[in-house]
Amino acid sequence: MNYKKPTKAIITDAGFASRFLPITKTIPKAMLPLGNRPVIELVAAECRAAGIEDLILVVTPEGKAIYEDYFNNPASRAKTLLYSQGKQDRFASVEELLSHPKPTIIVQDPSLPYGNGSPIASAKDLIDKDEAFIVCYSDDVVFGPSAVKDLLDSFEQHPDARAIIGAQLVPHEEIKKYASVDYDPETEVLKGLVEKPAPEDAASDLASYGRYLLTPEIFEFLSPDHTGLDAELWTADAIARLIPTGQVYTKKTSGLWMTTGDPRNYAFAQAKYLLDHEPFADEYRDFINHN
User: What are the extents of the domains in the chain?
Assistant: First the structure.
């Protein structure tokens, strides 16, 4: 069967984020800011730019209340004060945030193994059986054109798809950090994923990252009896099991993908955001260049 075009996106932030301790013992990783907005809001905005407003956030038990507060709290006291001072412009970003439909926020199923596939499996009951859906890892941000839109466009071209993976070229020496994509450039059919290969063994310099269009068929393989490396449940493993159908595709996305999943790369993404969005970008650039 062919599936309906996605109207829902699952955004995941259910790990321990141990590389950011101690801050992440209190604040979920995707609530760390780029400028004055948390990473999760930028991912949500990317989905909305592609026309997807029905968002499902899968989070930790500790993070659930924080996310619910962020996306629902009207900040009435701050609004009253700022309006009384004639500083309504400072509150505009809050009003814009609250103008969107509220995401559904759930906790990852504690019965599932650790792994990046478990948050997706936790949202199974919220996904229609006849509809494809989007998955975004919240520690991957995309600057420029929406990668989610790219996936939806690819689905228009490949309505038989069982899965479509977002991918982007990385420097040859960097492919060892990612899953190297083996695919047919003409048909875009995915032939395989080589996880963290030595550069000389990589199928290509095209790296898979946290943007996927999936179908309910994936849930058959996102279960505790399909764990992989380190007894974890991996999304890539589940997708690999769909490859023999010949209906798994690769989409080279057009926006700039950056990860925020570790302090080093988070710092680079922060710099990119500030240089692109803040009025003090030139001063910031001068400071970096002279210090």
Answer: 8-290
